[in-house]
Specification:
CATH superfamily of the largest domain: Alpha/Beta hydrolase fold, catalytic domain
Number of helices: 13
Number of domains: 2
Shape: globular
CATH class of the largest domain: Alpha Beta
CATH topology of the largest domain: Rossmann fold
Strand content: 15-25%
Order of helices and strands: HHEHHEHEHEHHHEEHHEEHHEEEEEEE
Distance between the termini: 98 Å
């Protein structure tokens, strides 16, 4: 027995020193395939800026870093963001950049992989868009229930700008969506390879070509013909109304789009639609149809659209279809102001006439000055008013002032004296928001 075991013992002694590096290498490969992850929940998630990262996302098509935490509660001033991928993509491949970026900026992020065909687990968006819209409907309802929000914001890319239109118009989605940000949108479809012209000629001549193409492609890609300019699907959603008045749309198109032909198909003239051609903002951004989902310039535009009150200027980064050139600056939003975080403590809403109430806290108020747009409109003296005597009140008539924000400044003397026995004069600045003034 001992003679049999010796070779095995020798083999174990040979392998044991290699075990640790082998395990480490395997772990590194697993991390690379799974995509960037945070060290812990408190750390910002890594945000990749190269389309090459779609390969890592493909290893786990139904997940993206930062997405689908159903315990997440929206921060003040935000709504849950639902990510809708493009044709042939998945949640993992399409949103490797935007999911962690949005999460890092305080958004609750959710997404799905929809429209799979049997035998194609790593590509999606292949089913008829009418059918895929039911999957989006189910996710939005689940998000609203989990977060307690009344509406969501949508961020769609390519097919993610077209498929949700059925949800909005025919599945009750319009009442559940506030903002809709669209990357490489297709309001009028595409004429890629002349398919739009073919559909138009087919309708004019009654050849049945569109139906024939649909029948031919439906076993593999039921949505493909629906992208064509003039398709039955686009005619149906356009007839229902291209831009739903209650939704705020942001369109981001690129001149280098090789799939949406012409790229201006993604622009729509409507009062609630903001159209942006990427190269008008950053001429050095050469992102084509795919790369827009990884562009730092597009990322800043998207954040600004979702949180316009905290928007930052786009710092133009040279972007190639393979990724950015040079260092990418910080992409994010301005910090939330203390007054925005606690509006009840810093502002009051009134109409035309309202009372200014200053509640002293351990200090004697000498006077209160009211300014509208830098112009002094009222001064009230209140010598000796203290906390023990209650709040000091003055009524100001704002009928003549056509502004919505009033600055109220009170000059007060602290009861406590400094080391030399002198009272310290301080200024308290408070802002009052008027409604209907």
């Amino acid at each position: 027995m001992s003679t049999v075991m010796r070779p095995r013992s020798a083999l174990r002694r040979t392998i044991r020193p290699l075990r640790a590096p082998l395990v480490a290498a395997a772990a590194a490969v697993a991390v690379a395939l799974a995509g960037p992850q945070a060290a812990n929940a408190a750390d910002p998630l890594p945000v990749p800026w190269s389309p090459v990262n779609l390969v890592a996302g493909g290893a786990n098509p139904d997940a993206a870093p930062g997405a689908n935490d159903f315990s997440c509660k929206p921060a003040p001033g935000t709504r849950p963001v639902v990510l809708v991928h493009g044709l042939g993509a998945t949640l993992g491949t399409n949103w490797a950049t935007f999911a962690p970026l949005l999460k890092n900026n305080g958004f609750c992020v959710f997404g799905l992989t929809y429209g799979r065909s049997a035998g194609f687990p790593y590509v999606a968006g292949l089913q008829r868009m009418e059918d895929s819209s039911a999957e989006l409907q189910a996710l939005v309802d689940k998000v609203l229930q989990a977060t307690g929000a009344d509406k969501v914001d949508l961020l769609g890319h390519s097919e993610g700008t077209v498929m949700p239109r059925w949800y909005l118009s025919f599945r009750g989605g319009a009442a559940k969506v506030d903002k809709y940000v669209q990357l490489t949108p297709l309001w009028d479809g595409t004429n890629l390879a002349g398919i739009g012209d073919l559909v138009a000629a087919d309708k004019a001549l009654g050849l049945g070509a569109q139906q024939g193409l649909t029948t031919l492609l439906s076993p593999v890609c039921g949505s493909c013909v629906q992208f064509a300019r003039g398709s039955d699907y686009l005619n149906a959603v356009n007839a229902a109304g291209p831009a739903i008045p209650s939704i705020h749309y942001t369109e981001i198109a690129t001149k280098y789009d090789e799939l949406v032909q012409p790229y201006t198909s993604g622009l729509l003239d409507a009062p609630n639609v903001k159209n942006t051609v990427l190269q008008d903002v950053c001429p050095q951004d050469m992102s084509e149809h795919l790369a827009v989902a990884y562009s730092p310039n597009v990322a800043q535009l998207v954040l600004n659209a979702l949180a316009p009150d905290r928007a930052r200027p786009v710092r133009c980064v040279t972007m190639l279809p393979t990724g950015p050139v040079g260092t990418v600056p910080d992409i994010g939003l301005e910090p939330r102001s203390a007054s925005a975080a606690k509006p009840a403590a810093a502002a009051q809403c009134a109409s035309r006439r309202f009372a200014i109430r200053v509640r002293p806290t351990g200090r004697a108020i000498r006077s209160v000055t009211v300014r509208v747009g830098g112009r002094k409109v009222a001064t009230r003296r209140a010598a000796g008013t203290t906390a023990a005597q209650g709040r000091w009140t003055a009524t100001v008539d704002l009928t003549r002032y056509g502004r919505r924000t009033v600055s109220v400044v009170s000059r007060a003397v602290l009861r406590a004296k400094d080391a030399k026995g002198r009272a310290r004069v301080v200024t308290d600045a408070r802002r009052y928001r008027t409604c209907g003034a």
